[in-house]
Design brief:
Largest sheet: none
Helix content: over 70%
Order of helices and strands: HHHHHHH
Strand content: under 5%
Number of domains: 1
Radius of gyration: 17 Å
Structural class: mainly alpha
Length: 136
């Protein structure tokens, strides 16, 4: 296989895009455009997070900006989904449910930032390792 194909496959396997791929295909074939838009936007944000992950970890050796960027990424996703929900481009129930699930992610990221620099990770370690994978 070509090297570029292997690299793309590795990037996609490190993100949740493979898991969303069947939903994207099914919603496209069913012409369920609101659900299709929701899944494509979610996949785009997962792919963006995967693409910036290694560069962000190299850049941020003091553990500040990674939490800010990840929190902003979640807030941007929530804002786009809310806007599209208001404009009837995605289902309103998907918009509300998605935001109720994801609202904890930016709060947890920013709490982790404060906990890392003020309290030496004494409070957020268990929450970060258990809640964040469930949210994402």
């Amino acid at each position: 296989m070509p090297d570029w194909f292997v690299e793309i496959r590795v990037i996609l396997s490190n993100s949740w895009v493979f898991i969303l791929s069947p939903a994207i295909i099914i919603f496209y074939l069913r012409k369920d455009w609101p659900a299709f838009y929701f899944s494509v936007i979610t996949a785009a944000f997962f792919l963006y997070g995967t693409l910036i992950y290694s560069a962000l970890k190299e850049f941020d050796d003091i553990y500040i900006w990674r939490y800010v960027v990840w929190a902003f990424n979640d807030i941007a996703w929530m804002a786009i989904i809310a806007y599209l929900g208001i404009k009837d481009k995605v289902y309103l129930w998907q918009s509300v449910l998605g935001q109720l699930v994801v609202i904890m992610a930016p709060i947890l990221q920013l709490f982790r930032l404060v906990d890392r620099h003020l309290w030496d990770l004494s409070y957020s370690t268990y929450m970060y390792k258990t809640l964040l994978p469930l949210i994402n």
